[in-house]
Recover the amino acids of this structure.
């Protein structure tokens, strides 16, 4: 990599700014957008206002001309001298005044008749669109035009008209437009300030506080003081604050559980090696026991060997939960009743007195499963049941019975593990298969049910609590048979005997 490439490469260690600059903040954007929208609204109001101002200006001039015209109509001809006529027209700003009565037109006052009239304006028939178009035309291109404005005045039956240059009109319209623009800007600033203040108090400040809380929590997620404290609002902001606080608290619990798992894995890894050595030594001793010619030893030695084999296998994969995945099940057809007997022989050693272990599985019942993994599942459930029944009361009075039964529906095997214990507490039911949270007894880790559920799911089945109350707690394992691939089945059928 050349020096130029290193210079062009962005700094990987550069971090995002922890605080948003004022120029890119929501407050500045909100203020600018509010000013812009108010100005757009004022522009929409501006054109009708200017058009109305233009028509009103012309109507005022026409009304003044009409008043003068009525006086001249009722007076003798040549009443006004030329100088006086010029003064009247100058006061109005017009060049000529005329009246139309019963179809006949009469020129009342004139100073200088223009050669060309640029625009004829009928003040009676001015539509809003035409008025706005003409007003814009006067503002942009006016100033040197001659206008003829006509129409009735008040309730008079006569129609008056004036000929007037548009220079004064355009000047008045420009002044009016300037005043409207200044007033619009003032209104937009006041409106934007009020809207900004209201929205800032209602939304921006809480959002900014939530942003700071998230940044602070990201710096030290293990610190409980960094969790946001929701306010008492009942709107969307309040809901967001409460949800954020709940997510942060849940994340803290998850991080604590992960640290617990990491510590557990570290501790177990330290003893795993020595444990395997001790179990291997015990296995060698148990192999020698097979040579002892004693009926009891010969009956118990194979079971001891199988138990040691499982213990060695467990110690080799003891770090599987939370660090690696469980091995995929090696499925075969398993006689369930015999497997349940092995489970009962294991748990019977630690069962309280007068504990009844009832194997209600039929002799010919078979399950398509991994024998070792199914043994672990049933052993975990049986051990939990025996431990739950151990504290139910006096041994001679309280019934302690662990029952395992099975049934089949088509290609699905259902195994029921039922005990007469006191039932699961509410907290255990809510977090039943969660490690370190779903323990059924005080001081437990909850790993047994979590591992059992994971193993059953690996078989494509499910582990469910179907009942839990004082005197009866029942779990159900649902394990479907492996689906048969048609191509393999057809190949076996075609294979010669």
């Amino acid at each position: 990599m050349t020096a130029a490439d290193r210079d062009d490469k962005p700094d990987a260690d550069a971090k995002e700014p922890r605080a948003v600059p004022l120029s890119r903040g929501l407050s500045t954007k909100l203020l600018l957008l509010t000013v812009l929208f108010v100005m757009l609204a004022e522009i929409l109001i501006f054109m009708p206002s200017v058009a109305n101002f233009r028509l009103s200006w012309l109507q005022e001039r026409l009304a003044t001309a009409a008043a003068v015209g009525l006086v001249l109509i009722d007076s003798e001809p040549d009443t006004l001298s030329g100088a006086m006529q010029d003064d009247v027209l100058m006061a109005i700003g017009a060049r000529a005044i005329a009246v139309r009565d019963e179809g006949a037109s009469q020129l009342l006052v004139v100073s200088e008749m223009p050669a060309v009239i640029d625009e004829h304006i009928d003040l009676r028939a001015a539509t809003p669109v035409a008025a706005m178009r003409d007003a814009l035309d006067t503002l942009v291109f006016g100033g040197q035009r001659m206008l003829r404005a006509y129409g009735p005045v008040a309730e008079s039956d006569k129609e008056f008209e004036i000929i007037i240059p548009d220079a004064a009109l355009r000047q008045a319209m420009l002044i009016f437009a300037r005043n409207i623009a200044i007033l619009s800007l003032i209104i937009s600033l006041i409106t934007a300030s009020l809207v900004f203040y209201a929205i800032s108090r209602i939304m921006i400040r809480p959002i900014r506080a939530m942003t700071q809380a998230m940044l602070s929590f990201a710096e030290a997620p293990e610190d409980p003081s960094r969790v946001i404290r929701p306010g008492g609002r009942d709107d969307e902001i309040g809901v967001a604050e409460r949800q954020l606080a709940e997510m942060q608290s849940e994340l803290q619990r998850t991080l604590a559980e992960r640290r617990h798992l990491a510590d557990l894995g570290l501790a177990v890894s330290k003893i795993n090696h020595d444990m395997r050595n001790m179990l291997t030594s015990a296995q060698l001793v148990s192999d020698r026991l097979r040579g002892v010619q004693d009926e009891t030893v010969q009956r118990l030695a194979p079971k001891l060997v199988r138990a040691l084999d499982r213990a060695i296998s467990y110690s080799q994969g003891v770090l599987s939960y939370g660090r690696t995945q469980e091995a995929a099940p090696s499925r075969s057809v398993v006689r369930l009743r015999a497997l349940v007997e092995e489970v009962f022989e294991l748990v019977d050693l630690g069962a309280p007195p007068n504990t009844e272990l009832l194997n209600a599985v039929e002799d010919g019942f078979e399950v398509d499963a991994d024998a070792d993994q199914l043994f672990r599942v049933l052993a975990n459930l049986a051990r939990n049941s025996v431990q739950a029944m151990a504290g139910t009361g006096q041994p001679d009075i309280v019934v302690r019975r662990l029952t395992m039964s099975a049934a089949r529906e088509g290609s699905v095997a259902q195994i029921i593990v039922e005990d007469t214990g006191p039932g699961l507490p509410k907290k255990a039911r809510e977090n039943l298969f969660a490690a370190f949270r779903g323990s059924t007894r005080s001081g437990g880790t909850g790993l047994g049910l979590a591992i059992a559920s994971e193993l059953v799911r690996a078989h494509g089945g499910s582990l469910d609590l179907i009942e839990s109350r004082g005197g009866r707690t029942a779990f159900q394992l649902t394990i479907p048979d492996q689906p048969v691939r048609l191509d393999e089945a057809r190949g076996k059928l075609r294979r010669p005997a």
Summary: Residues 332-483 form a domain with the Heat Shock Protein 90 fold (CATH 3.30.565.10).
